[in-house]
Design goal:
Layout: H1 3-23, E1 26-30, H2 35-38, E2 46-52, H3 60-69, E3 73-74, H4 78-88, E4 90-94, E5 101-106, H5 114-124, E6 127-131, E7 134-138, H6 141-151, H7 154-167, H8 173-183, H9 186-193, H10 199-206
Parallel strand pairs: 2-5
Antiparallel strand pairs: 1-2, 3-4, 4-5, 6-7
Helix pairs in contact: 5-6, 6-7, 6-8, 7-10, 8-9
């Protein structure tokens, strides 16, 4: 990690580990930050993660209060950040150096769409990983792949394919097949299993081009 990214990452993980211990707010990393561990290394300037605040009776406002106490800064102002988060279940803010952006997804246990379902599934199966000797919670490899397939952009498919090709001998494929039916991504999983190795070809086949 470059130094400014590493400092922001450490600030974030220190905060997340503290609030899990003190308030029971569980978290896990998702997105591009995991590609160096799970897929092909690519540059990313954002850090994406999920928190489960509602199950421990926290609100967006009380969570933002914790962020403010721990030297995180909004893009515009916290009032606007809170309003947008209530609509989108996504908080976006900066580290204390105001260099690195955090995309902080909030689990919505009331929503039944596939995006929230994979979020809840991944929370139950989160795993401990190490980045530059910093221990933290992450989505599992299987759920990393399936979340990428749920979102379904070209970069998502590329990341999913990279993880599959790198770890397919150790993945719990039976679990992935079962869960893909709940999420409506059976076609995507079957195409991974076929041995396809080109992300452009994968994207085109999934989208019927």
């Amino acid at each position: 990690m470059e130094i400014r990214y590493e400092l922001a990452f450490k600030q974030l993980i220190d905060f997340l580990e503290k609030i899990e211990q003190e308030y029971g707010i569980k978290y896990y990393l998702v997105g591009g930050v995991l590609t160096s561990l799970y897929s092909e290394l690519r540059s990313t300037q954002d850090i994406d993660f999920v928190v489960d605040i509602y199950s421990v009776n926290h609100s967006i406002e009380s969570y933002i209060s914790l962020l403010r106490q721990n030297d995180f800064y909004p893009y515009q102002d916290w009032e606007t950040t809170a309003r947008l988060a209530r609509e989108t279940k996504l908080l976006q803010y900066l580290d204390k150096q105001e260099n690195i952006k955090f995309d902080n997804y909030i689990l919505d246990r009331q929503s039944k769409d596939k995006y929230n379902r994979i979020g809840l599934i991944a929370l139950k199966r989160r795993v401990r990983v190490s980045f530059s000797e910093i221990e933290c919670w992450s989505t599992s490899k299987e759920d990393f792949i399936m979340s990428k397939l749920v979102y379904g952009g070209w970069q998502d498919y590329t990341d999913a394919l990279g993880c599959w090709m790198r770890f397919n001998d150790t993945l719990d494929v039976s679990y992935m097949i079962k869960t893909s039916k709940e999420l409506g991504i059976q076609k995507e999983i079957e195409l991974l299993k076929s041995g396809i190795d080109d992300p452009d070809d994968y994207f085109n086949q999934i989208n019927g081009y």
